[in-house]
Amino acid sequence: MSRRTRWNGAALAVVMGGSLAAGCGAPGGDAPQPEATSASVAAAPTCGTAPVTLNAYIETGFPLPKELSTEFSKQYPNVKWNIREDQFAVITQNAPRVLADDPPDLMRLPQVSELVKNNLLKNLDGYAKAFGWDSWPASQLEQMRLAPGGKTRGEGSLYAMGLNFSMTGVFYNKKLAAKIGMSSPPATLAELDDALAKAKSAGITPIAQFNGGATGGLAFPLQDLMAAYGPPGPINDWIYQKPGATIDTPSNLQATQHLEKWIKAGYFWKDVNAVDYATMMSRFIKGDGLFSFNGDWESGNLDKQMPGDVGFFLMPPVQQGGKQAAMSAPLTYGISSRAKNADCAAFFLNWVATDPKAREIGVKVGGSHPMGPADGPMPEVAKDTVTASTLDAGAKIAEDNGAMDFIANATGAIYAKSWTPQLQKLVAGQQTPEELLKSVQSDYTSQVGGS
Amino acid sequence: MTRPTPESAVDPDATRPGPAAVTRKRSPARSGGLRTPSWVGWLFVAPALGFYAVFVLRPIALTVQYSMYRWDGIGASTWAGLGNYVKVFTDPDLFASILNAIKLIAFFSVIPVVLGLAIASTIRRIAESRLALVARTVLFLPQVIPLVAAGIAWSWLMSSTGLVNQLLTSVGLGGVARAWLGDFSTALPAVGVIGAWVLLGLCTILLLSGMSKIDMSLYEAARMDGAGPMREFFSITVPSLRQEIGVCVTVTVIAALASFDIVYVSTQGGPGNATMVPGLEIYYLAFSERQVGMASALAVVLMLLVLLVALPIQWLTKDRSS
Prior knowledge:
The complex is a heterodimer. Chain A is 45% helix and 12% strand. The mean pLDDT of chain A is 88. Chain A folds into two domains: 52-166 and 330-379, 3-Layer(aba) Sandwich (D-Maltodextrin-Binding Protein, domain 2), CATH 3.40.190; 168-327 and 402-450, D-Maltodextrin-Binding Protein, domain 2 (3-Layer(aba) Sandwich), CATH 3.40.190.10. By secondary structure, chain A is an alpha/beta fold. In chain A, helix 2 (64-75) links the parallel strand 1 (52-59) and strand 2 (79-86). Chain A has helices at residues 2-21, 64-75, 88-101, 113-117, 125-131, 138-142, 174-179, 189-201, 219-229, 232-239, 250-264, 277-285, 299-305, 342-354, 356-364, 386-400, 414-427, 433-450; strands at residues 52-59, 79-86, 106-108, 145-146, 157-158, 161-165, 168-173, 291-295, 310-313, 326-327, 330-334, 369-370, 403-404. In chain B, 34% of the residues are buried. Chain B has helices at 6-9, 12-15, 19-26, 39-66, 83-90, 92-125, 130-144, 147-157, 163-170, 187-211, 216-224, 229-240, 242-257, 261-266, 278-287, 292-316; strands at residues 69-70, 78-79. In chain B, strands 1-2 form a two-stranded antiparallel sheet. Chain B contains 16 helices and two strands. In chain B, helix 4 crosses helix 16, helix 5 crosses helix 16 (292-316) and helix 6 (92-125) runs parallel beside helix 10. At the A-B interface, helix 1, helix 3 and helix 17 of A face helix 4, strand 1 and strand 2 of B.
């Protein structure tokens, strides 16, 4: 009996141990190997004529990609779609594993540095050459370029494409503006401060903004203030992880102090630390709040919900007539390095930027400026709509070379773990502008150096 | 049998033990009827054991292994030894999240158990009435509602224009009204209240079922000795419920230390890390910072912390009489 018990015990140990021992080597290493050379494409690729099913992984809640895919299938009936949708936060968390294990042909992408580092994204240089993307305004593609190794962004090979590019600035409620005698958008930061003070004393919430949960929406006005006080170049360098870049600069300190002044003056809702994005939008649409720092992805929505009552302007400069800047980012889509139909996916991306019908969908449904050549066809947009003013703003930013990526995109964790808690502390009076920037910079250094 | 087979050609009894011999040898074991070999028992356990090994033990072992590496979840990893563990205890943010979880025990355990005892003994007194049934149902309802839905409902109740503030304003306490989940000083207690609400029903029902097992003659005897309701409660009810209280405390303490869903839905750790708990921190580390090694180290520390707290509770509330 005792021998049998011992045998059973041994069998148990083998079963358990075997299951435990699986993966005893160092974890990882299942990432694709880097491509020997960047794919060179002889002629511009197409989707061919044989039936193709494109696997796409897109962000839910935004109708643009679906409308584009439907129109594309109309024009190229051999192409069918297999679309999987998720919220952006889910896509962000899943991106590396999905690209490694279940590679889609086309995928909405979060910050791409880590994906490129692990060779999960297809190098698009070959397609860029074949389709002539190189001749588009360089700023459109800059944010999706990465130096070898995926460390520094803003230069190097192209790893993603946009369906359009968004523009941020300040929306304002025209009815409330009339109440405080604001007939035209402020032309300087001082004029904006003046309008804010007038709204406050008229009992109107000056700024409708969100700052709750894990999404610190005060980063919008903060970065706009940074770009008002200083040039956008160094901010982009920081976001692109260029060596030696820092966010803790004198002009950024002025910007943070200015934001603190707004907080202390009570320009935001008292419960701003508990307001999420959706709550902010519903309050602003209901007429609570004169200004709101947001992006043109809401233009179409606002034109529908408050027709004729909403205006948009770019963050005014400190000096009248000074250069203006804005967060402007492409709606990034990429192709998995293991995609089966990479050529067709690239053809689709090129079609989105160049086909007149696709560009019209991009503007009317997406509300943002299409990618593509500077003289590409533009759909007619009614003059007095928000969409029209955000498109105009895009032209001004291109002229001033003032496009910035979002400071929240510098690293994968900088938004949720640094900007958001720090800005929430600033609202609660538990953090000073000096320490805020120092703290974000030290998190950034450890993340950039440590990853 | 015309042809001799090799087997019948030799004398069977000479080469192998015949049935009689076997029977004789094993007879002591056979006294209880037909004997089944002991490995058959393992066969019955095998499916469950297999699942347990693959889905519980293996992940734990892998987590321990990952915690010794620096790894982004995809690419190559580098050996880090105990470096990740050192960081768990030296990084103020990570350590603060552990402290928050310990603070949550007051709301997740103390309130449900104490209040649950009071409510259960009240319900037991009115056990015959329909009110008792209604009270039981209402109190247990939070266990049936998905935690995510509960978290969303509570974040509405506690918003600056929510019911909680409306009630406060209507009784003249508008001055204390605030966005409870967005205020640094009230966010953690507010999350705690949601947890208390969820766990109160579980504790009440558990304690109530324990009370139904108490011999009624004990109460009669106490009453004859002139004991009042309070005396009955502390001298009979509470000591008799030692094991049920033990289960309640264990379950709720683990819920507090390993909390995730309520916090994720209501505050996501904000404002400014005021409600950050280890469960949420592990999730952020693994999926947004992509520091799988650090996340694993914190997970191992959390597991040990849960064991460290739960085992003494088990020991303290063990039924000594048996």
